[in-house]
UniProtKB/TrEMBL annotation:
GO CC annotation terms, alphabetical: peroxisome
Name of this chain's protein: Acyl-CoA oxidase
Pfam families: Acyl-CoA_ox_N
GO molecular function, one term: FAD binding
InterPro entries, per the entry: Acyl-CoA_ox_N (IPR029320), Acyl-CoA_Oxase/DH_mid-dom_sf (IPR046373), Acyl-CoA_oxidase (IPR012258), AcylCoA_DH/ox_N_sf (IPR037069), AcylCoA_DH/oxidase_NM_dom_sf (IPR009100)
Residue ranges constituting the Acyl-coenzyme A oxidase N-terminal domain according to the UniProt record: 42-154
GO annotation terms (biological process): fatty acid beta-oxidation using acyl-CoA oxidase; lipid homeostasis
Length: 224
């Protein structure tokens, strides 16, 4: 079957509102507002339904207002920044995100706050996911109660003293856990772990490389 290689125009990319042509790629707010006038239900009530309640919707809006008005989360000059400056900005935002989280006590409130922060900068959520879901959950799931309390006392829960990392990805294996070659063997004589990377393919590489090297404080830690 022959295929027509001609590029066809996208009939949905342009709309006419009040006799004026609008490009929906540049005028989405106006187009959406007009479309919402045609619905048969209350849009605000639908928001309450999707979020779960009026209170949750209003909480999301409060979070959005806080982040939108925070100069640190402005993206006006983001695309003009160098890679190093972007990393520096992201980590400053991570620190700011932890400060925001201090204001809320429940896990649900904090999770909703992170959803909103992720809209402003997904990189912040990525790094906080690594800290909470990979590093801290790893300690909680594989460590002892004493070890979890120790890391909590050093700021693992509040994120004000350090950010945890998770060194899994290797150059030759990606995130294929079964194929990883770097080993950590506990030496009882020295009471420490001996790390062995047998070849270049086993080198730990990921977007967290600079994050680990530049942002993780050095502490004298007890053996795990």
């Amino acid at each position: 079957m022959a295929l027509n290689s001609a590029v066809l125009p996208n009939a949905t990319s342009n709309v006419v509102i009040g006799g004026i042509h609008y490009d929906t790629t540049t005028e989405p707010p106006r187009a959406l507002a007009e479309e919402r006038k045609n619905v048969t239900f209350n849009v605000r009530d639908m928001s309450y339904f999707i979020d779960g309640s009026k209170e949750v919707t209003e909480r999301f809006e409060d979070f959005m207002n806080q982040i939108e008005r925070d100069p640190l989360f402005s993206n006006d000059a983001f695309y003009d920044l160098t890679l190093d400056k972007k990393r520096e900005l992201t980590m400053a935002r991570v620190a700011q995100a932890f400060k925001y989280m201090d204001k809320y006590k429940t896990t649900k409130e904090r999770a909703d706050l992170l959803l909103v922060i992720g809209l402003a900068d997904p990189s912040v959520n990525t790094r906080m996911f690594v800290h909470f879901n990979l590093f801290l959950s790893g300690v909680q799931g594989s460590g002892t109660d004493a070890q979890l309390k120790y890391w909590a006392s050093r700021g693992a829960v509040t994120g004000h003293k350090f950010y945890g990392c998770f060194a899994m990805t290797e150059a030759g294996h990606g995130s294929n856990v079964a194929g990883l070659e770097t080993t950590a063997v506990f030496d009882e004589a020295t009471d420490e772990f001996v790390i062995n990377t047998p070849n270049q393919a086993a080198a730990k590489v990921s977007l967290y490389h600079d994050f680990i090297r530049n942002w993780s404080p050095r502490y004298d830690l007890p053996p795990l």
